Amino acid sequence: MLVHLLRTSVYSGNVYLLPDSGMLVDAGISGSETIAAVSRFMDVEDLELVVLTHAHFDHSGGLVDLVERCDLRVALHRDDLGLLSDDLGSVASMFGASAPLVDVDIVLSDGDLLPIGGGDRLEVIHTPGHTPGGVCLYHRKSGSLFSGDTLFGAGGVGRVDLLGGDAHALLRSIERLAGLNVEVLYPGHGEPSSQDVSLQIERALRFARSMV
Ligand SMILES: [Zn+2]
Ligand SMILES: [Zn+2]
Q: Which of 159, 206, 154 is nearest to 178 (CA)?
């Protein structure tokens, strides 16, 4: 599975491009930045889908420009639909911005499978805690996990003090992730990692246990 981490501004959540399927994992905070970064790898018109790991503005702020320019579809878990268009819930107001008003084309549920070409797919794992409708995307064949803001490298975990945050739910989500074989971690912030990922997840699990 070919994955590019797109370089965008420091305020943005990570945006990952899967060029073989025209898929983005998260939109980033700025559509123009994301579009410029995508264009280094492929024709932006060929983007098909953006899957949001959750509704926060640092991951969703670029949606309006992306949908207008690329006519791509938007996927989000059902439990974050209410947050996406809400200035407070999406934390857009923390960035002095307004929440993106876009249609969600694909409403995700736990266990959904997203095709990424060649008969391959990403599994949607519902991981509430940072937000109610946070998801991780898992590529079982390569042991790759897009973890959004649920967990980060070096044992970091998502904050639970924002609207809809829940430390107990986050712990259960990370317990579930700890049961997966993860070889490569693609977090929502910070660098991807393929070194001792299971140890990093174990540390995140201990951290999450300390929060409840
Ligand atoms: Zn974030
Ligand atoms: Zn977030």
A: 206
Q: CA-to-CA distance for 6 and 36, rounded, in angstroms? A: 9
Distance in angstroms (rounded) separating the CA atoms of residues 193 and 184: 6
- Residue 96 scores a pLDDT above 90: yes
What is the CA(91)–ligand 1 centre distance, in A? Answer: 10
- Residue 142 CA, ligand 2 centroid: distance in Å: 25
| pLDDT given at position 92 | 97
Ligand nearest to the CA of 134: 2
Question: Quick one: which ligand is closest to 188's CA?
Answer: 1
**Mean pLDDT in residue range 166-178:** 98
Whole-number Å distance between alpha carbons of 12 and 62: 9
pLDDT value at 199 more than 90:
yes
What is the pLDDT, as a whole number, of residue 118? 86
* CA of 26, nearest ligand number: 1
Q: How confident is the model at residue 193 (pLDDT cuts 50, 70, 90)?
A: very high
Determine the distance separating the centroid of ligand 2 and the alpha carbon of 190, expressed in angstroms.
Answer: 13
CATH number 3.60.15.10 given to 4-210: yes
